[in-house]
Amino acid sequence: MVTRDDVARRAGTSPAVVSYVVNDGPRPVAAATRARVEAAMVELGYRPNLVARALRSARSRTIGLVVPDSTEAFFTELVHAVERAAHAEGVLVLLGNSGFSRRQEQRYVQALAGMQVDGLLLVQAEVADPVPPLDLPGVPLVYLNHRAPRGVAAPSVVLANRRGGGLAAEHLLAHGHRRIGCLTGDARSGPVADRARGCAAALHRAGLEPGAVLRTGLDRHTTRAQVRDWLAGPDRPEAVVATADGLAVDVLSVAQELWIRVPDDLAVTGFGATAAGAHTWPPLSTVGHPLEDVGRAAVATLAAVRQGAEPVPDRVLDVAFVARRSCGCRPRPDERHIRRLGSDESAVRSSGGANGQR
């Protein structure tokens, strides 16, 4: 086994200097010396004992992240954003998928805590099952995309979900739609439920009764069947606020199967501002916040909790409406009141009307 002494001899320095390079301190190392040590480590195949280093420093330089399903576009992009933010801080991310199972979620949380991670980011599954109390003494915890359960003293990093649901409904109202339906999940609390409440509140402010609400579960096959029955029925809405981009993509797909033209016969908006939404046909109008910012906010909040100086407040990130064709817009990115969020999309921060012509 290659040791630090071997690396030191090859690099022409002391084992202490090798330790400073491996641990990035506590003393500085000249750039030329660091380069020699790193080259010797590669040449000899030296691998630091990260477990021993963590025991000595009381830091593992790892964090745990639990999400419901990293194959779903929103969670895929969120995971990558957290990884990039953590990597910028020299931290690795250990990932667990709960599969929308409260039991599996708890198992991952306990297992990651047992691995002596420096902290945990928990994207709680939005299911109707009760939330058992977490016993994580000494492990910093931040709830991501979902507020902490009542009675849990942990901060959260969330989107302005209720406001975002209202933005989507107000935008469709500005297009002249009045029969606006909402496609949402079956959980009565959480981010998706908050978006549905924001949609209903916007319709109420406009003097309209909330349109048909379709609540669906987690199985995509079942969801598509429910959406097909909804859109094929006599009371089909003329516009749909979907509370997640994945649900909106199901609407677009089913509409194509039923020869329903989007946006001429049916306007559709999503929530999440995922990259995949820009590549549907028609491109999906959606609501969201750049997930790179969400990842940075999550990692920074977890670091603040770990420092433990004072209670860390919740972070609520504002959202914007991203106007594309599925709602009837033809975005004009040269207009001054539009803020660019990407190379092919525009964000309307105000709720003041549809941008473009139907």
Automatic annotation (TrEMBL):
CDD domains: HTH_LacI, PBP1_LacI_sugar_binding-like. It comes from the Bacteria. SMART domains: HTH_LACI. It holds the Pfam family LacI. One of its GO terms (molecular function) is DNA-binding transcription factor activity. Keywords: DNA-binding, Transcription, Transcription regulation. It comes from Pseudonocardia kunmingensis. Residues 339-358 are annotated as: Disordered. This is LacI family transcriptional regulator. The keyword Transcription applies. Gene3D superfamilies: 3.40.50.2300, lambda repressor-like DNA-binding domains. The lineage of its organism: Bacteria, Bacillati, Actinomycetota, Actinomycetes, Pseudonocardiales. InterPro entries: HTH_LacI, LacI/GalR-like_sensor, Lambda_DNA-bd_dom_sf, Peripla_BP_I. Residues 2-57 form the HTH lacI-type domain.
